[in-house]
Cytochrome P450
Amino acid sequence: EKWRKRRKILTPTFHFNVLEEFVDSFVEHTDRLVESLKSGAES
């Protein structure tokens, strides 16, 4: 029962339309992370 209540609360948070708004931010931060990892690998 606890699981059902929590799922009901959280499910709208991860709906595709909501997540779509964050795609640009995800891409930007992923690019930064990749560049940082590349720099660390070269040193």
About this structure: The CA atoms of residues 14 and 20 lie 10 Å apart.
